[in-house]
Amino acid sequence: MLTTSRRFTLHALLACAALGLTTQSYAQQVFKITAIPDESPTELARKAAPLVAYLSQKLGMKVEFTPVSDYAAAVETLVNRQVDMAWFGGFTFVQAQVRSGGKVLPLVQREEDAHFKSVFITAQPGILALADLKGKTLSFGAPSSTSGHLMPRNYLLEAKINPDTDLKRVAFSGAHDATIAAVAAGKVDAGALNISVWDKFVADKKVDTSKVRVFYTTPAYFDYNWSVHADMPPALRTKLTQAFLDLNSGNPEGKALLELQRASRFIPTQAANYKGIEAAARSAGLLK
Q: What pTM did the predictor assign?
């Protein structure tokens, strides 16, 4: 028969063994991340690879990038905890938070995302303002894109232009780079997209600005962020947040990662920042 002291010792040993197993299994797990497919698969993979390596080193566990087919899939994979972290636009974050009953939390955003903008572009000389779009064809990006659909639609409505009734045709290219291609090829009269993708195309001379130009830039709004499920342990959330905050352009690795993410630096964010996006989505009838 075990004495009280021996029973205590046995319980302690069992508890330590259980803790060791938990720690071991946790250390072996794969941390999965995904991103809304707002650019081509090759571009997303190019941007993800160095970040995966960096986070793997910072978190001390294997990190994998899991591509998804569309914006809705990015929302569902995080809501259903098939991935641990997702790169969302403001609208997809709002969709994920509503879909999860508030269980999706934004951790960090690029400093640029606190004052993000969309641009309207055209190759038509007669289009100089939003009012000139009446009777014309226009391409948005993906239906759930913040900067490629929701906010451009919001500012069109504020200008008393209903895309569904005042334009000849509305198309959805699926991604920002595809919108540029559609406008440059003359498939549509104009397009709306993410300003950072446009600026990157211009800097890389991937678009002929003597033919395709910006004719309207929207006011600023909050946009992209890295989000996680609220069930993630707080200690891991803190570690993950700090990994992004530690990135700086003062060292080669940080500089390269920030340039790939088109960021000057990452800053903390919160759900309240996206209330304006939610209001715009509800006003446009895109969020029930």
A: 0.85
